[in-house]
Specification:
mainly alpha
Length: 194
């Protein structure tokens, strides 16, 4: 991994975000846009260098994956939904510094990222970096009780991983049944209502 600074939001994405904001008078700014505008590059890649090798194919930025994981948790999205949001939502593209043509990543990358972060003991790194930035901006005071027990966050991530695994297992089973006994599946499963 070669730590790199995040690029500024693409011009066409920034224009689209501004246009949407201008038409939504009085509405709050989407969280990803507010995070990028107020906090900038929140999770530098270098902070995760211990968990990622120096050789091998280039992958997605660990700092960006950390931010995707935060947005995923805030919106209670599965890995697949979060990966789709990276490709489909202007606010997420803006926050991550992507252009409209960026194809994002496969949803399995998020699970692999979390596994690697846990394996290298970096679970609290995201929270520490966020608190440090908020403190620097004067949004939280020093010495207060900002720190929280990360057990519930780790538990929520584990539950999302298990739910995703269960869903993928059901999907694979239905696909196998469709190949083996397509007429039975059509009779038993209400596919349009599913």
């Amino acid at each position: 991994m070669e730590p790199q600074s995040w690029p500024e939001p693409a011009l066409e994405v920034a224009r689209a975000v501004r246009a949407v904001r201008a038409k939504n008078y009085g509405r709050t700014v989407p969280l990803p846009v507010a995070v990028r505008d107020r906090l900038g590059e929140l999770f530098p890649d270098g902070e995760f260098a211990d968990a990622f090798g120096k050789t091998g194919p280039a992958g997605w930025s660990p700092g960006r994956l950390a931010l995707v994981t935060v947005f995923q948790h805030v919106e209670n999205l599965t890995d697949r939904q979060a990966a789709d949001a990276v490709r489909d939502r202007l606010s997420w593209m803006y926050a991550l510094g992507l252009d409209l043509a960026d194809t994002g990543f496969d949803f399995t990358v998020l699970s692999q990222f979390r596994t690697r972060v846990v394996a290298h003991g970096l679970e609290e790194k995201v929270l520490d970096l966020l608190l440090e930035r908020l403190k620097d901006l004067g949004l939280v005071g020093a010495g207060g009780k900002q720190r929280t027990d990360s057990t519930h966050v780790v538990s929520a991530v584990r539950d999302l991983n298990r739910l995703e695994l269960a869903g993928e297992s059901v999907r694979a089973a239905v696909e196998a049944l469709t190949v083996a006994a397509p007429h039975w599946v059509a009779e038993v499963l209400d596919v349009p209502g599913w």
